[in-house]
Amino acid sequence: MLPYQIEFINLARQHDVLKFGEFTLKSGRISPYFFNAGAFACGEALAALGRCYARRIVDSGVQFDILLGPAYKGIPLVAGTAMRLAEQGVNLPYCFNRKEAKDHGEGGTLVGAPLAGRVLILDDVISAGTSV
């Protein structure tokens, strides 16, 4: 295993993010486990998680133009990862969506950079792809 993979596993264990039981996913499917990224609930954990995600993204060689973090748990994931990618010399835009359109201020359903080009989606659980 690579160092960032070991760091990720240790981080997940430390913050008790992997739960076992019977969980109904947004897709309606039943899962015997659930990964609760919301349990990474402090700055140190979020920074470490962003570092793990950034290293994996760089190592994968995936090509993308923008990062998208779906509301709600994808928002801190995308922000933390974007910061850690920038530290590695990969300074790309990011955005996140709102669950409901805003009718005041700047309005709309997206916050951040305009959504364009190849999009890399960062979320805690992706089962059916319906959150975006």
Q: What is the rounded Rg?
A: 15 Å
CATH topology: Rossmann fold
Strand residue percentage = 25-35%
Q: What structural class do the secondary elements suggest?
A: alpha/beta
Helix count, DSSP H or I runs of 4 or more residues: 3
End-to-end separation in angstroms reads 32 Å
Low-confidence stretches: none
Number of domains: 1
* Lateral arrangement of strands in the main beta sheet: 5-4-3-6
Order of helices and strands: HEEHEHEEE
The helix content is 25-40%
- Principal-axis shape equals globular
CATH architectural type: 3-Layer(aba) Sandwich
Throw out a few tags for this protein:
132 residues, alpha/beta, Rossmann fold, two-stranded antiparallel ribbon, 6 strands, globular
Description:
With 132 residues, this protein is of the alpha/beta class. It has a single domain, classed as 3-Layer(aba) Sandwich (Rossmann fold). Helices cover 33% and strands 26% of the residues. It contains three helices and six strands. The protein has a four-stranded mixed β-sheet with strand order 5-4-3-6, with helices on one face. It has a two-stranded antiparallel sheet with strand order 1-2. Strand 4 and strand 5 form a beta hairpin. Helix 1 packs antiparallel against helix 2 and helix 2 crosses helix 3. The model has no long low-confidence stretch (mean pLDDT 91).
